[in-house]
Design brief:
The complex is a heterodimer of chains A (502) and B (277).
Chain A lengths: L9 H11 L2 H9 L2 H4 L12 H4 L12 H8 L9 H5 L6 H9 L3 H11 L3 H7 L11 H6 L5 H14 L15 E5 L3 H12 L3 E5 L8 H4 L8 H13 L3 E3 L10 H6 L2 E6 L5 E2 L12 E3 H10 L17 E5 L3 H12 L4 E5 L11 H9 L3 E3 L2 E8 L5 E14 L5 E5 L5 E4 L2 E4 L3 E2 L3 H5 L25 E3 L2 H4 L4 H21 L4
Parallel strand pairs in A: 1-2, 1-4, 2-3, 4-16, 6-14, 7-8, 7-14, 8-9
Antiparallel strand pairs in A: 5-15, 10-11, 11-12, 11-13
Chain B lengths: L1 E10 L2 E7 L1 H6 L5 E5 L7 E4 L2 E3 L4 E7 L3 H7 L6 E2 L1 E6 L10 E7 L2 H4 L1 H9 L3 E8 L8 H7 L2 E8 L4 E2 L2 H11 L5 E5 L2 H11 L6 E4 L15 E4 L2 E4 H4 L2 E3 L5 H8 L3 H15 L2
Parallel strand pairs in B: 9-10, 9-13, 10-11, 13-14
Antiparallel strand pairs in B: 1-2, 1-7, 2-6, 3-4, 3-8, 5-6, 11-12, 14-17, 15-16
Helix pairs in contact in B: 6-7
The chains are: A alpha/beta (502), B alpha+beta (277).
The complex binds flavin-adenine dinucleotide (FAD) (2 copies), iron/sulfur cluster and FE2/S2 (inorganic) cluster.
């Protein structure tokens, strides 16, 4: 289930080459030689100052302005063999959209992006570009600093939204075929958009009361403003997608019930919503949260504005967040914003192994988050009211690499120590949500509770049932979920075309 | 959005709410619950399903006024809409022919045991039901429960009802009079369920309780509802809400239920100040 770098297919290569050979691209290349391009430094993303932003939930990154975006775009060499595209899990034609920005054709750049990525404003903000497209950018190889592909993606998408120029493509006449999408996360939203554009009758069924999946209940406003998601969901509705919120597939109706109601194809994008705990003593004390609960209270239920909203969340003096991924960073930065004097990351490996995005770690550090590496909790203590008061930790050292290739932490005997905390957030990962598998007889499952699919088509073993995103991968990324959705949508369309009408 | 068909006070502090939710009505089974959010700024709170009507496509719950959410619900009028009404959630209660089943309901649990009484009776059980109230003016649905049960008892702290027992004493009394009781099911506040479980433990009668810990999503996504049963952490919203009362860590449950005590009072004061200045 690891993130595999996909090779560019020969067809893709041909498309890239055709774009590369277009006259306007030649002209841009000629206008400014490589040597000149290499002189420009990377445009800095404007950020709100740490001491201001760590007290509210408004977005940290402010986005490049047009001038900066065009300057950044000039840094790109427009390579014959664009490495970046191979690094992108969905193979966005990066040089084309970057060169459109260089020319000031921002709307066209956004449309170019949308040919392969239906949610560029989101991916531009949350994709780990530093390990994908930017990691292997040729400019990085030669100067050490890659083209800011992510910042440019965000810029183009924001420009389109800001211009109020979201084009609704012409929708072909309805095919009359009903498709059910389970889960309104990035995977489900992508499938819905693609199939609606092909004229199918699409309905999304979402368990929560707002669409967006992790993007709405998990990733905080300060990293991904909810208004962006709302715009994406509104767009889908304009395409004719029906959305049934507060509908739990498996409970309100099973997949088979939906089949009875005339749905002919299904996409399961129900995500990895099951929080893992460490099963150590004291984990059920009041004041110990799963990251899902903590973030859901704050983001979905708006507990940061309690009592204007009714859902409470514990404030804290000293908050410890267990884990080293994006989820842990989001939680710890949230605790700071809710007023903690000290917010601490407790991670059992070292900085080098942290799976969180570099930008998030960097932002967390600026905001005054403390990092305790090579440390793991082994027990929590509470008072007579059952409230968390302290935690006992153990120091670790790194041993041999494990199956993930990262060095495995091993406890240092006798290194136990106790520290006072009044809030703990457990952010050690999520497992696939078991609700659908449990209520869909015959659905073939993998080893980790994930749904088993044919990776070329995203088809499950059940007729007309496809799946993608975190439910097949375990906790992965937004772009991979979207990529799965893209493939599944194309396959569902094929399936419906070949299937006689029922 | 779901439309309110009926909302009325049954007895002081206890209200009935009937909501138009045809899909939930079609699918629900005894022992399941819904999550309702009274308004856009509200909290998602769980309510047990006390009845449903397939023709009207409606689902009914009984709730007790405690904090902000239930106060908001108590002001809804027929025709109003709530932004969230989702269900049926949780596992349905086990319905089989066990033999003789003793049901005990207090507070909103008097409503919540009704579908169980009906289903257990239909499955061939001898159904004995105890309603627990503080005083006679708090009695409701005794006619419905009488019709669904073989015998109906009342435990009350009220001389007008010729009873001054809390429900555990009544359970012991009924158990003594009956040749055999195969199962007890208790629904109501955590304290009532705890006391019922303690009463049946020495008698060796299997006792099922319907837990009501704090919840957020109700679909197993957050872990707010975790409790310890048989030494293992369970999520009450998907593994329950029914659990064996003799296997629960009650102390933990009481403490977790009080998690937000101060915030709840703050929230209610805030709401009262802004609505009734
Ligand atoms: C806090 C946090 C931060 C993250 N940060 C990043 C990041 O910076 N970059 C990145 O690329 N990735 C990040 N991720 C991971 C990324 O968000 C996920 O990989 C991605 O959202 C998966 O998309 P999905 O569509 O598969 O599932 P989800 O986004 O999980 O959506 C699934 C949806 O299905 C619904 N659902 C579940 N069961 C049912 C049912 N039975 N019936 C109806 N609906 C159901 C859920 O309510 C949910 O809305 C982060 C994750 C978290 C939790
Ligand atoms: C599966 C499940 C089913 C439930 N079914 C019902 C039902 O059918 N009818 C119903 O009235 N309630 C039921 N509850 C409890 C109900 O969800 C809470 O009463 C509700 O959340 C209170 O919200 P509030 O905002 O009004 O009060 P809050 O502000 O959240 O609470 C106010 C105060 O009341 C206390 N309190 C809250 N609920 C209870 C309770 N049930 N028993 C004792 N003390 C409590 C709190 O500890 C707090 O001190 C159920 C709970 C669960 C988990
Ligand atoms: S590898 Fe870097 S320089 Fe080359 S096309 Fe891609 S972004 Fe531009
Ligand atoms: S309420 Fe969230 S897991 Fe049970």
């Amino acid at each position: 289930m690891a993130e595999e770098k996909k090779d560019i297919t020969p067809e893709q290569k041909a498309v890239l080459k055709a774009e590369f050979d277009k006259d306007w691209r030649k002209e841009i290349r000629k206008a400014l030689p490589l040597k000149e391009r290499m002189k420009f430094g990377r445009q800095k993303m404007p950020e709100r100052p740490p001491e201001e932003r760590n007290r509210d939930f408004k977005e940290v990154n402010q986005g490049l302005d047009a001038e900066a975006a065009m300057a950044e775009a000039r840094r790109c060499w427009d390579c014959v063999n664009p490495q970046c595209v191979a690094g992108c899990p969905v193979g966005i034609d990066i040089p084309s959209f970057v060169k459109l920005i260089e020319q000031g054709k921002f709307l066209e750049a956004a449309w170019k992006l949308k040919e392969t990525n239906s949610l560029p404003a989101i991916c531009g903000r949350v994709c780990p570009q530093e390990t994908q497209c930017e990691e292997i950018c040729n400019v990085k190889k030669s100067t050490g600093v890659p083209v800011a592909v992510g910042n440019l993606e965000r810029f183009a998408a924001d420009f389109e939204r800001g211009a109020g120029n979201i084009v609704i493509p012409p929708i072909p006449p309805s095919t009359g075929r009903k498709v059910a999408i389970i889960g309104a996360g990035p995977a489900g939203l992508t499938v819905a958009g693609d199939l609606a554009k092909l004229g199918h009758e699409v309905t999304i069924f979402e368990a929560l009361h707002i669409s967006g999946g992790v993007l709405i209940y998990g990733i905080p406003e300060f990293r991904l403003p909810k208004a962006i998601l709302k715009a994406e969901v509104d767009y889908l509705q304009k395409l004719g997608v029906g959305i049934r919120t507060s509908f739990v597939v498996g409970k309100t109706a099973t997949l088979d019930d939906l089949r009875q109601e005339g749905f002919e194809a299904f996409f399961i994008g129900s995500g990895a919503g099951l929080p893992n705990f460490m099963k150590i003593p004291g984990e059920n004390l009041v004041g110990v949260y799963s990251a899902n609960e903590y973030l859901t209270r704050v983001n979905l239920m708006k507990a940061y504005d309690f009592p204007n909203y009714d859902t409470p969340v514990f404030p804290s003096k000293c908050a410890a967040v267990i884990g080293g991924g994006n989820v842990a960073m989001d939680s710890v930065r949230t605790s700071k914003r809710l007023g903690a004097d000290r917010s601490i990351i407790i991670y059992r490996r070292s900085r080098h192994e942290m799976p969180a995005r570099t930008e998030e770690i960097h932002h967390a550090e600026e905001e005054g988050i403390e990092f305790h590496f090579l440390t793991a909790p082994i027990r929590y203590f509470g008072d007579d009211r059952g409230r968390l008061t302290a935690m006992e930790c153990l120091r670790m050292e790194l041993g041999e690499p494990d199956s993930s290739g990262r060095r495995k932490p091993v406890p240092v005997p006798g290194s136990e120590f106790i520290t006072e905390v009044d809030l703990v957030v457990v952010a050690i990962g999520q497992s696939p949500n078991p609700l659908i598998p449990q209520t869909t007889p015959g659905l073939k499952m993998g080893k980790w509770g994930n749904i088993d699919v044919d990776w070329k088509t995203m088809a499950t073993n059940l007729e007309g049932v496809y799946a993608g995103g975190d439910i097949i991968r375990g906790g992965a990324t937004v772009i991979l979920a979207m990529g799965d959705g893209r493939i599944a949508a194309a396959e569902i369309d094929k399936y419906l075309r070949n299937k006689p009408r029922s | 959005m779901a439309k309110i068909l009926d909302r009325r006070r049954l007895v002081p502090n206890l209200h009935l709410i009937e909501v138009h939710a045809p899909e939930v009505a079609k699918k629900c089974r005894p022992g399941q619950f819904v999550i309702i959010m009274p308004d856009e700024r509200g909290e998602r709170i769980p309510l047990s399903i006390a009845d449903w009507n397939l023709e009207k496509g409606s689902v009914t719950s009984v709730f007790i006024l405690v904090g902000t959410s239930t106060h908001k619900l108590s002001l809804l009028q027929p025709g109003d809409e709530v932004p969230v009404y989702v269900g049926p959630l949780g596992k349905p209660s086990e319905i089989e022919n066990f033999g003789t089943v003793l049901l005990a309901g207090g507070c909103f649990g008097i409503g919540a045991i009704y579908p169980l009484a009906r289903a257990l009776k239909k499955a061939g059980n001898r159904v004995l039901t105890i309603i627990d109230v503080k005083a006679n003016y708090l009695l409701y649905w005794e006619d419905k429960l009488k019709a669904a049960s073989d015998r109906l008892f009342i435990s009350a702290r009220d001389f007008a009802l010729e009873s001054k027992d809390y429900v555990p004493a009544k359970i012991e009394e009924v158990a003594k009079a009956e040749p055999k009781i195969d199962r007890v099911v208790a629904i109501g506040c955590t304290y009532l369920m705890y006391r019922c479980s303690m009463a049946t433990k020495p008698l060796g009668i299997k006792t099922i309780v319907s837990l009501n810990p704090v919840m957020v999503d109700g679909t197993g996504m957050c872990g707010a509802c975790r409790c310890t049963a048989g030494g293992q952490t369970k999520f009450a919203c998907v593994d329950g809400p029914d659990f064996d009362g003799h296997q629960l860590d009650w102390d933990e449950l009481f403490k977790r239920r009080k998690s937000y005590f101060d915030d709840e009072i703050r929230s209610l004061c805030h709401w009262e100040r802004s609505n009734f200045p």
